[in-house]
Amino acid sequence: MQAYAEGFEVMKSSEFELDLHEIAGIWRYGSVVRSWLLELLYAAFEKEGAQLEKIRGYVEDSGEGRWTIAEAIAEDVPVPVITAALFARFASRQDESFAAKVNAALRNQFGGHAVEAAKQAE
To answer: Which of 50, 57, 65, 121 has the fewest CB atoms within 10 Å, i.e. is most exposed?
Structure first.
């Protein structure tokens, strides 16, 4: 799911005006990336709007990823993709990340990289 999410975000951010709903529909059948997940995404575009504007980008986890990662650790099995997907869910829950603020501040201090000013509460 995370790979589809990231791929669709790349397409949404592209210079081209892509119809992501249509792409999901086309890819459901006869494509190397076809899957039931694309059928579900196509249905979500139908229900939630062409830009998924009716839903918030907050992703909950139901525990399976956590359990899988815990078992993988117990069995010394690397599961970097599942772990990254779980952490992407955590990141979706933050409006503003303090870790990102620290990272931006450090990059500014050691390399002069630009930082953006925080928005003031109204």
So the answer is: 121
Range of the domain at 42: 2-48
Residue with the two structure tokens 């990059």: 107
pTM for the whole structure: 0.75
Q: If you ran DSSP here, which 8-state letter would residue 118 be given? A: P
Q: Is the pLDDT of residue 114 over 80?
A: yes
**Could you tell me the pLDDT band of residue 120, with boundaries at 50, 70 and 90?**
low
Evaluate whether residue 26 is within a structural domain.
yes
Same-domain pairing of 44 and 19: yes
Region of residue 109 (left: phi > 0; alpha: psi -120 to 50; beta: else): alpha
- For residue 122, what pLDDT is reported? 55
Distances in Å between the alpha carbon of 90 and those of 12, 59, 71, 94? 22, 7, 19, 7
Q: What 8-state DSSP symbol labels residue 120?
A: P
Per-residue model confidence (pLDDT) at position 121: 56
Residue 90 lies in a domain: yes
